[in-house]
Write a structure and sequence with these properties.
Elements: H1 2-19, H2 22-104, H3 106-148, E1 156-161, E2 164-170, H4 171-174, H5 184-198, E3 205-210, H6 224-242, E4 250-256, H7 267-273, E5 275-280, H8 284-293
Helix pairs in contact: 3-5, 5-6
């Protein structure tokens, strides 16, 4: 009986299943595909929303960090503002004090400014005088070179050094060896120098004698000191007696061997050291007069 009943139900299920039309089956399959596609779309949208949510979390963290950084900057700026306010108050107080001082000492400050202005004018005048002196020195050098002509540079040298004009004349042109008698050729050269000096009556000058380091002695001269001084005085006497230069303008000096311009170990060096130097002295009295006027 049980087997019959089971067989009956199976047979009924087959009959019912076979009764479903193919059209409805296709419709069910299509509906399934539609629902499955919708399900997949929802899954994709869910994933996209999850990704956006994660991105929003990251952006939120970045914004929070920026907010914290800006808040820290605001704290620092507020500290700076407070510091500047304090300094501003101090400056204002100092300005108040200064205004009191300036009112009390306005006349003194005014005089100080006037003195500064006067000193500035004085400095400009000195600079102008120095520039004028330099120009005069250069003119003097040009006049001396023009008067002497194309003489061998080994025998005579004219230059400006530290605002002083120097005329170096070799002793081989001025004197014979071991002598302090001026040669005739040297007298001609000294005459040309004297012509320029006579055209500048306010100029004072010194004549220096220089020797080499070779020991010297004769019945008249004891050593190179004597020789250097005698050569300087011989040149001065020529300038005074032969060319009429006022002796008040001249000074004679001997430097012996102690101011060489070359080494005394060679004959060329010793020859360079044996020289007579005419030094055009700076006119300091003009500057002192300028100072007295101020």
């Amino acid at each position: 009986m049980k087997k019959f009943t089971l067989f009956f139900y199976l047979l009924l299920s087959v009959i019912l299943f076979s009764c479903i039309s193919p059209k409805k089956l296709k419709q069910s399959e299509a509906k399934y595909q539609q629902l499955n596609g919708a399900y997949l779309d929802q899954q994709n949208k869910l994933r996209e929303l999850q990704s956006e949510l994660n991105g929003s979390k990251n952006d939120n963290e970045i914004l929070l960090n920026k907010k914290a950084s800006l808040e820290s900057q605001m704290v620092d700026l507020n500290k700076q503002i407070d510091f500047l306010k304090q300094n501003n108050n101090q400056v204002l107080n100092q300005l108040k004090d200064l205004s009191v001082i300036s009112n009390a000492q306005a006349e003194s400050i005014k005089k100080s400014m006037e003195n500064i202005g006067a000193k500035d004018i004085y400095i400009r005048d000195l600079q102008s005088s120095i520039a004028k002196k330099d120009s005069l020195n250069m003119a003097l050098v040009m006049n001396l070179k023009g008067a002497i002509g194309n003489l061998d540079d080994k025998d005579i040298n004219i230059k400006v050094d530290k605002d002083v004009v120097y005329v170096d004349i070799s002793d081989r042109l001025l004197f014979k060896s071991g002598s302090f008698d001026v040669t005739d050729k040297a007298k001609e050269v000294l005459g040309k120098v004297a012509k320029v000096l006579n055209n500048q009556p306010d100029i004072e000058f010194m004549v220096e004698g220089h020797t080499d380091s070779v020991a010297f002695k004769n019945p008249v001269l004891l050593d190179n000191w004597d020789l250097s001084v005698k050569r300087a005085t011989s040149v001065i006497r020529i300038l005074q007696n032969n060319y009429g230069i006022d002796p008040k303008r001249m000074t004679a000096a001997g430097r012996s061997q102690y101011l060489p311009i070359a080494s005394n170990t060679s004959s060329e060096g010793r020859a360079a050291n044996r020289r007579t130097r005419i030094i055009i002295l700076p006119q300091l009295d003009q500057f002192f007069k300028l100072l007295e006027k101020k």
